[in-house]
Structure formats: structure tokens, C-alpha cells
Amino acid sequence: MKAAIVIFPGTNRERDMALALRRVTGQAPRMIWHHETDLDGVDLVVLPGGFSYGDYLRCGAMAAHSPIMGAVRDFAASGGHILGVCNGFQILTESNLLPGALLRNADLRFLSQDCHLRVEVEGTPFTRRWKKGDIFRTPLAHGDGNYTADATTLAMLEGEGRVAFRYADAKGHVHADDRASNPNGSVNSIAGILSENKRICGMMPHPEDLVDPLMGGEDGLPLFEGLVEALVR
Amino acid sequence: MNKPVTVDESLAREFGLTGEEYGRVLSIMGRTPSLTELGVFSVMWSEHCSYKSSRKWLRGLPTKAPWVIHGPGENAGVVDIGQGYAAIFKMESHNHPSFIEPYQGAATGVGGILRDVFTMGARPVANLNALRFGSPENPVTRRIVDGVVRGIGGYGNCVGVPTVGGEINFHPAYDGNPLVNAMTVGIARQDRIFLSAAAGVGNPVVYVGSRTGRDGIHGATMSSAEFDEDALSKRPTVQVGDPFIEKLLIEACLELMATDAIVAIQDMGAAGLTSSAVEMAGKGGVGIELDLDAVPQREPNMTAYEMMLSESQERMLMVLRPDRTELARKIFEKWELDFAIIGHLTESGHIVIRHKGQLEADIPLEPLADEAPVYDRPSIAPAKPAALGAVHAPLSLDAMLLQLVGSPDLASRAWVWNQYDSTVGGQTVRRPGAADAAIIKVDDTRIGLALTTDCTPRYCQADPRTGGAQAVAEAWRNITATGALPLAVTDNLNFGNPEKPEIMGQFIAALEGMGEACKVLDFPIVSGNVSLYNETRMPDGTTQAILPTPAIGGLGVLDDVSCAIGLGMQADKDVVLIGTTRGELGQSIWLREILGREEGAPPTVDLAAEKRNGDFVRTEIRAGRVTACHDIADGGILVAAAEMVMASGTGCELESPDSGIRPEAFWFGEDQARYLVCVDDAKAFCASATQAGVPARLIGRSGGNDLILPSGVTISSARLQFAHETFFPALMDK
Q: How many Cβ atoms from other residues are within 10 Å of residue B202's Cβ?
């Protein structure tokens, strides 16, 4: 699997993501500056976390207009696989590659903590190493992770099995109104969603920061191992 | 804006110079200085930049060791951490701005200390802080805590440097003068360290980063005076930070530092362009000529005076090799940052400033530095505190424990930590609260860094010498408790008005205590910052000084980070107490929180015992014979045990001490040089301790989910947790 990580001005979790990808592929991913437009030979494009353009307009809104995003859109249209984490998820919604939007956290404060995610759909390139209903721990760190979408979009996502991950408590129970298990207040406790073809995934938490027992666990590793399995050529 | 002003002694006083200091300016210049020149002198000779009250005493601190690469005098301290790597670190205060405008004050404090570290070639890998706020009952406190925490998070989270540790105290002495001390740690290759001494006559002087605006003019002077009731009207002297620009600046500078373009580099911190230009040229023994027309400006019609004194954030000054200027320009253009050649080095030995064809300043650098005032201010040695008389526990042990773990200084800081990104970078081995010191892995190696900030101001107030030594000892102990070897210290000396003999006496005594501890513990001070005049003038004319607060930032190293241990209680272990317990309750948290008294002498600091006990603990951790370790500090043994239980959820049954000491003194006394450890075999462990001359005794057995007191009273870890976690949300979210 040839992975590429896109770097925008203000991106700051590209090194975390590179460590995670190197761990599963054994090779350093390509780092792509946002002015570039060439994605030839790439199997997976990753939009990592950070504060692209300082998040000064809306999170991800400026990055969505970067030169590289034209190439990313073409890549998506040709069936390419894309993972957007945190700011990357925000960029994907701002680019209309995924539906919905990410608002300020419900209590209006930046949140940095571990959360538990329940896997909602199995067999996708992003979730194939889990079974539906599996629970895994992952750090999150964001100020704007409160996922929202209109009722029609929500019904579509739920109906088409496009909710990839939901915030849950450690036992896997989902309570959308409970800040302890749904810390940012996302609608239906949605933490990650998929595109119609299930090849684009956006999620707020950071599985890339929990791929090494030294850092407290490997709970995030199956996501990356699954991608390697799905995209190996 | 440009109305003519008369430069005279009265204007000099407005700028913070004394009459005598102004006389010295006149004799150096041989004429009346221009407004810009007076501005340069006043900021360079401010307490903040010149350390005029503290310098004499700072010279006495131990700063050398074989592993110290650069001590005080550079932008930050540099130590050898092995395998060709260096850790570069420093702590700096942003106290005054944080009271006036808490969010921006704290945010720019983080930004400033980051620049001190990456200007030396290091990628910043961790931020810490040491915060002191006023009484929780004071309605202003909540607003300041909120702003400071948001500011630290807002800046650190955006630049992508994890905030991994810190400490917070509350005390009414900080009501009008909170302390915000920010620390940054960075990593560089030892052969890629950049210094600030300019060299090479003719070499271009290059300005990069944000444009210069009118913000923060005379900020350094403001930080060198007491607060009065007009403090809040000084808001325009507080700078505004832009962490996004800082992030770009970090990446652009590190990219340039991978080339051979840079001769010297320094950030524009306090006193902005003035101090960076003066210090770079001064250190290099060269002259510097600046053309202010070339300075990137945010606002029209800025004067030379304003540009030289602006403290606009996120700016750096560099001296480049002339043949690499275009290469450098391309890098900064890529990162969409301003890049301007604003001058060159000369052999004149003067700083010469031109603007719009006018000569605005021409000052000889040598006397500007060498004739800067140094004061040996009068001091009164602090009186030894009276010993604490007999005290008695008014409540049961369990009731007192629950009250203590929920008290402002001991309550869970999760509400704060959860607003700081502690994992970005992917190298955080122990997050806040998981161990006595935060642990960060050095990328591409097995090396770990152990990082902590410590100070117990109430001890320093009662006995500055003991308090100074204790602050160093506690930092050393916290690093030791993870298994790391303590290497070096950065300090942030926060005190009141040095022109008062009793404050100067506190300062001198605290430094003596610190110096002695650093010497005995082999823990040199490699960088630091002094913040004086932390006092508030009340409307009735009296002043309130802060508690003397010499905050210590400690750094230790682990050759193999996987050997690091945390403080969470491990199941089915013997719990052993290390160190001597006399039951010292003077100035203890117990005395203050349970009896409402701040009295007595702080606990004895026995540095030889500290070293012996700590070296033993570290050796045992590294041999794999200790599975959890927690230093015993505020609240004594019982609070330490409760913290270990809360950290993991695993309980512990404690034994009756049978020590001849009253129970409250045994369990809550704050005797120093002690640790609680989890081991498999207490008997063998205590035998080797005895052999090393280290007091050790079995004190309990871990297991289950409850903390069981010797009386048989059982407190579930959930109940402890509830008591522990109520304070901050109740204070902040009400």
C-alpha cells in the first residue's frame, strides 16, 4: 500500500500519522505539500489532523480550496481511498466529499481525552479488522468535533450503513445525550462516517495516536492493518 | 502620533528609568538621546531584560556538569541526552500580561517560550506549565483560570506541541497577580544547535515571521513594575498571539536550519527588535545597522520608536550567509511568511537605526550592555518560623482524606488537562496524571525524557531557604519516581518587589536553598527567568506580594523509555514506604485545609537522605523490581496512597503504622525524601534498602478496588474519585 499524507499550512498530526502508517506498511508514507497536485501511484490519501490555516474561517474551509484538493477530488472520483482524521474529516465535509458538518463541541471547550468507539459496520476497508459492535479506545483532541447533518442526510447515512464509528461507553452502550460517552455532543453519537462507495472515511478521534504499547496501547492499529490488507497490490 | 516630545529625565522616569540611570545614559551618549535611543535604553535596562536586581545572586547558582552543553546565557539551556541528541529547554513567566488579559497573556507566554527553544534548532516536543491563581472564593479567579487554561490550550494545541504536565496552586496571595510560567522542551542533534552571537561584518540581518504592529510597546517595562488599580487600563501593552503563524515559523525555521544558511538566530521576545538586535550584535562583538523602512509593518505610519519597542509576536531575527539569502527567502515564501533583509552587520560596534532617511539612533553596544545597572539591593534575612505546637485531628482519618483529595490544591486537574492536547506528536508515553513526571519518547530512539514542574510556595513563604531547596528536591524526586535520571533544571523565579528588603531577603534565601539542592543532587540550572514586582497595590495604599514562588522545571532521561513506570497502584503487590517519617505537619496541606492554619516550619529538607533514597529507588526501578512509584508530597502518605489507587482503580489495604507518631501526623505529615512503591517481595526489597542505608518498611498490600485504612474503614476508589473530581468542574462550570 502506497500512502500519501497531505500537509496544509497548520497541519500538525502528520508525524503521528506517518508513524502509524510506517508501522503497518514498513515504509515511510509520501508527504505531499498542499501546493502539489500529483497523486500518481498512490493507494491511500490521508488528510491528517491539525489546524489548517489556523481554523480561522471555518475548520477545513480554507484547506478545501488548496491546489491539492482538486487532485484529491479526482482521486475520489476514480474510486481512490481517503482517510480524513480530525481536521482531515473537517476538510472532507468542507470539500463535500462527505456530508454533514462539524460544529463546536457541545460544551464549547477543546477536548483532549480518551474515548471509546463502537464499530458500526464491518467489512469496509477501514473496519475490516473489526466486527460490528466491537469497542476500541482512542484519543481525541479537538474543539470542533460535534457532528451534525440534516434529517434526510442522517437517515441516508444510517440507512446505507455509512456510520462507521459511534462514541460509546467502555461497555459499548451509546447515549447521545451523555457527555461522558458522547463527549462532543455529536448527533446520534457519530464519530466517523463513510462515503457512498465506502472508500472515503472521515473521523474525529485519533487512532494513529494509539498504535504502540509504549504509548498506552494498540487499539487504533486494526484500522491501519485493515487498510493495508484491503489496499495491498 | 508624531507630535514632538522632549527627551528629559522626567520622560526617562515615565519609561521606567531612575534619575541615576538616566544620568548614565547621558554620559554614555555624550548628548541628550533621541526618543528612540531612550526607548532602547529603557527596555534594555528594564528589570525584565537586564536582571539588574537579581544578577548578582544568579551568579551563585550551580550551572555546570559534564552533560551540560549550554547553560544560562543562551536562549535556552542545552543538555546531552545521549546518542548525539540534546534536549533544549526553558521556562518563562507571563504573569503580568496574564492578569491583564488572561487568554492572550497565557497564549503569548506559550508562544514566547516555544520560540526560545526552536530558535536554537530544536523541534519542540513538549510543553509544561506552572500556574498560581488567587483564592477559589475570589470571583475574579474563575475568569482568570478560564482565560489562562484556554490560552495555553489555544496556543499549544494549534502549534501541535503536546502539553504534558504542570502544576496549579490556589492562594489569596495571587488574587491580584496570578503566575503563568510556561516551559518548552525541544530536541535537536547536538551538532545542529544554533546560537545567537552574530558574526561576519557585512552579513545580512533578516527579519522573518509576522509583521510589526503597535502591540506590546513597552511590555517589558510594564512587567517591571507593580500593579495598581489602573492595571487593566494597560491592556494595550499586552501582545496578541497567532499560533498558526508560529506553527509556520517553526516549520520554516527548522527547514532552513537543515541547511548551512544561518550564522545566528534569535527570536524577538520581550523588547522585540531592540533586544534581539542588541543582544545578537553585542554577543558577537560586532555592530549592526538597521533600516526600518524594510521592516514588514502591519500598520501605516509607525515611528522608529514604535517599531523598535513593539512586542508583536511570532517574529525572528537572523544573520544569514549572503550567498544563502535567496535559498532562505524561498523557504519562507513557501510557508507564506514575511522575509525581509532589514540591515547588515558592521564593524562599528554600534547599533545604528535609520528610518525614512533619518538617523534615529546610534548607540555604542558595549556600554549599553556593560554599563547596564546591577543592584545589590538591601535585604533582610527572613526570620525562622516558629515551630508548630501540638495539633489534634478534629475528624476521622477517612473524613479528612476525602476532604483533602477534594481540596483546591490536591483535587483532580483533569478538567484542565482535558483541554490540552497531550498526545499530538505520537510520542507521549505517560500523559498528565499517569506518573510523577510526564514521559516523552525521543523519535527514532529508545530515549525517554521525564519532565516536571514543581514548587511549594507556602513552604517558601515560611522559610524561603528550605522552600527553595524543597522545590528542587521535589522535581528531582518526581523524575526519579519514573525511573529516570534527573539531568538539569530550568527555573522561573517569581517574587515581589525587590526594592523591599524583606522581598530581597526572600529572594536571596530561596536561591541559596535552590543552589545547595542543585549542587548536592547534581542537578544544575541551565536556563531560567526572573519575574519580580509581582505585587498589587491596593486602593488603600498597601501592597500584596505573592508568595515567593521559585518554580522549578526538571528534566531527566531514560536510556530505555520502556523502563519508565507510573504511579497507578498495581494489583497484588507489597506496598513499601521509603524514607523517614517524623510526622512533620508545619505548613502542611492538612494543617491548612483541616484546621485552617498556615503555620509552623516547612518539613526538613535533608539533601543527603534525598539523594540516597532517590538513587536507591531509581536503581530498583531500573532493575525491574518496582512496578509503581509515587513520591510523597502534599498531603503525606495517605494522600499519596489514595492518588495511586485513583490512578489505576486498584485498591490497597494499609497497615497500622505502630510508629509512636500520632495518626494524623503519620498519615498526613509532609516529611521529604519519601516514596511509596509497589514491589513483589517486600522482605527482600527492604533488606536491600537497609543495605543501602535507606529506611524502608512494608505499609500495605494492594488489591481489590478499595482503599482500606488500618481502622478497617473502607473507601472505594470510586468514592475517592468522586471527591477528587468535584472541585474543578464545580468552580468552573457553575
A: 10
**A98-129 burial code (b ≥16 CB/10 A, e <16):** bbbbbbbbbeebbbbbbbbbbbbbbebbbbbb
Closest CA to B467 of B547, B521, B571, B569: B547
**With contacts defined as CB-CB under 8 Å, which chain B residues touch A50?**
160
User: Could you identify the residue written with the cell 477545513?
Assistant: A60
Bridge partners, A118 (sequence order): A135, A166
Q: How far apart are CA B165 and CA A203, in angstroms?
A: 27
Q: Which residue's entry shows cell 497548520?
A: A10
Q: Which of B94, B133, B90 is nearest to B553 (CA)?
A: B90
Counting one residue from A and one from B, how many pairs have CB atoms under 8 Å apart? 91
Q: For B324-353, what is the HEC assignment?
A: HHHHHHHHHHHCCCEEEEEEEEECCCEEEE
CA distance B65 to B567: 30
Q: State the best of B152, B412, B423 to mutate against chain A, taking most chain A CBs within 10 Å.
A: B423
Q: What is the pLDDT of residues B578-599, one digit of tens each?
A: 999 999 999 999 999 999 999 9
pLDDT tier for residue B122 given thresholds of 50, 70 and 90: very high
The tens digit of pLDDT for each residue in A153-185 reads 999 999 999 999 999 999 999 999 999 999 999
Instruction: Give strand pairing partners of B437.
Output: none
What residues of A are in contact with residue B732 (Cβ under 8 Å)? none
Please give the Cα distance from B159 to B339 (Å, whole number).
21
Q: Give pLDDT tens digits for B601-636.
A: 999 999 999 999 999 999 999 999 999 999 999 999
Each as own residue / partner, the long-range contacts of residues B606-610 (CB below 8 Å, 24 or more positions apart, any chain) are B606/B672, B606/B673, B607/B469, B607/B473, B607/B516, B607/B517, B607/B520, B607/B521, B608/B520, B609/B579, B609/B580, B609/B672, B609/B673, B610/B473, B610/B476, B610/B477, B610/B517, B610/B520, B610/B521, B610/B672, B610/B673
Compute the distance between CA of residue B584 and CA of residue B673 in angstroms, rounded to an integer. Answer: 12
What share of chain B has pLDDT > 90, as a percent? 91
Chain B residues contacting A, CB < 8 Å?
A: 150, 153-154, 157-160, 242-245, 247-248, 334-336, 417-429, 431, 441, 443, 561-562, 733
Instruction: Report the interhelical angle of B607-622 vs B682-691 (nearest 10°).
Output: 130
CA atoms within 13 A on the CB side of A233: 7
Asked if B630 is an active-site residue, the reply is no
Coil, helix or strand for B469? helix
> Is B609 in contact with B470 (CB distance < 8 Å)?
no
Residue with cell 504511579: B567
C-alpha span between A113 and B331 (Å, rounded)? 36
A205-232 confidence digits (pLDDT tens): 999 999 999 999 999 999 999 999 999 8
**pTM score, whole prediction:** 0.96
What is the rounded CA–CA span in Å between residue A43 and residue B569?
A: 45
One-letter amino acid at B227 equals: F
Q: Do B426 and A111 touch (CB under 8 A)?
A: no
In the prediction, which pLDDT does B2 show?
Answer: 47
A78: distance to nearest CA of chain B, Å?
A: 30
**A16, A55, A212: residue with CB nearest B424:** A16
Give me the sign of the Cα torsion angle B207, B211, B214, B215.
negative
Average pLDDT over residues B442-471: 98
Residue B391 CA to residue B358 CA, distance in Å, equals 73
Count the neighbouring beta carbons within 10 Å of the beta carbon of residue B541.
Answer: 6
DSSP assignment string, A63-96: GGGSHHHHHHHHHHHTT-EEEEETHHHHHHHHTT
| ipTM, interface predicted TM-score of the complex | 0.96
User: CA B32 to CA B225: how far, in whole Å?
Assistant: 25
